[in-house]
Fold each of these.
Amino acid sequence: MKPWLLLPVKVAHDIAPIALKLGAAFQTSDIPKWNPLKWKGLTFPNRLGLAGGVDKDGELIEEWWAYGAGFVEIGTVTPKPQGPNPGKIMGRDLESRALWNRMGFPGSGADVALANLRDLPTKRRTPVFVNIGKNRDTAKDEAAKDYAECIRTLAGFADAFVVNISSPNTSGLRELLQPKQLQRFLGAVLAARTKVEQDSPRSTPVLLKLSPDAENSALRTVVEVACELGIDGFIATNTTLAREHGSPFPPEGGVSGAPLASRSKEVLHQLRDALGNNKGERLLVSVGGVMSPEDVRERLSLGADLVQVYSGLIFEGPGFFKNVAKAMNTRGDV
């Protein structure tokens, strides 16, 4: 029985933080350990983490740890606070196990995210990724300045940055994935990372989140350009503008959940193929349509280093992390 699925999606969304806080108080304190990973000085107790878009301001990081997340991604964080796009911004379809949103990076801004990160214990239980984006009123040609500002504000408090230029819900954002624009934009973002950390003993990794709607040839070009610039890894994928036959959702906005699974796996395959022997220490994170422990196991078998969940939490509840851990330990994936 999942009573939250009986509520209107917006109501369930709005009361979720309260319910999560209450439920976390009844969780066991230990984060499940299965198939741990060490990467660039970071230790992941298990391979399943929270995807970006759930905890936008980093208010519930300790609660996600209580539920068993092996890492947490907060955001998307923008430099200035902003509200959601006007009109209807979210939907849910139980039959297809799909979510739809056109939120457009709503959040309280980088200063609030910084305050929440500062409140965490000095010794964190897992790595915390920060997904960063631009404010919607920032011109596309000025976008790199917003991402650089987020890096300057949050440097030293993010264990990794996730560059989000693949959301379909901010006008013109995906145009930054075009090769010439990506070269200029991502080069500036990575240069900002280098500048703020020139006296730091450790550089904060930067990951690029990919769009599922790019053609395979375009995807490979994005990967090639990003690697040439020194990207540390990729997250595949963001939500999709594609619609299955009979989809109840409007054409604008991104769909996640089960309908995204096939394309997400295909992008992971293309990513692995594009990198080939040049993967090195680059981190590959798979997200999109991860709805069961079997899905987590499959993504790892397809070459993902880490897996993230978003829609699976909505349809299965926050116990998803520990259910996956139990399945992994039962099968011996430790």
Amino acid sequence: MVNVVIRQQIGRHGVEPIVLNTSPKKLDRAWYARILRAPKVLLGLSKFFLSGFSKRPSTVYMSISGGYGQVYEILFLILARILRSRIFLHHHNYTYLDKRSEITRTLMHIAGQEAIHIVLCSDMAERVRHWYGRSKKVFVLSNAALSDSDILPTQPKRSSMKKVGFLGNISDAKGIFEFLEVMKYIAKDHPNLGVSGFIAGPFEDHSVDLGVMTLLSELPHVFYVGSKYGEEKVGFLREIDALLFPSKYEAEPFTIHEAMAYGLPVIASERGCIGEIISSQSGLVIKQQEDFVKNAAEQLLAWASNRAEYVCASKNAYNQFIRLSGEHKKKLGLLLHEMTQAL
């Protein structure tokens, strides 16, 4: 999603980029799925190599994978250095920032000291410098800057908290089973509040699909509504009253910004940059050592029982998004100028 928005923004600056799409067709993260990417990578490398003879790409923008996908990206960076291109690397992952990775160290070395590293928050910036060199050129840009302002409503009017949503790839790592435990907790202790749950997104694999559907048969107040994209996703965000985001790994999820743009208070695990997005007035960030299910359920119950508290959280979520979006859209303009000025 971020790559698509950056491409669109570059186009609005009068530049038509050469796009090399090496992304996998499925969410499967098994080793064989990564190997199946090889033909697309080779095709991309060939296209990149040939473009170097016809018109040398003076700027290369690349999103960095979290793990072994970086091996493929190193190949593109080698070509970029041979072509003497200006390099912009966009970081979306904490896997190699929680601890030092030798693959990432190699990638950083090949990218060179002049590469611009686009990160999502101040914590991410500090970790890049800590693990891979204090001299790195780092540019902080929140994903709030990349939301499509054309589909954002004016100040949303929400009056009560009855519907809790889960939106994203459905997997254990994304916290789907914690979401179901929270909904079970609420139904068991407060069945008369009428709080229901709605799950939207694609399943990562068949085993997760089977596990979730088995649990849903025991939770009549929780519903799977399928994958939601475009206008359907907008409709989903309008229908729910709060977003539950129990993901076990994140950097700065687009989903949280989208939810807050629609006045949805968010409850999330403390991962990556999330603590810099959600304030105590606009939702709840639960620390890793705390009981996520208990804390999330109690916050949802507080909103469901106290309309004034919920309405206040909803307004604060919207205002928090507007502030972040405005601040970082200005920074996005500066970045795009830097990326396109030599083209």
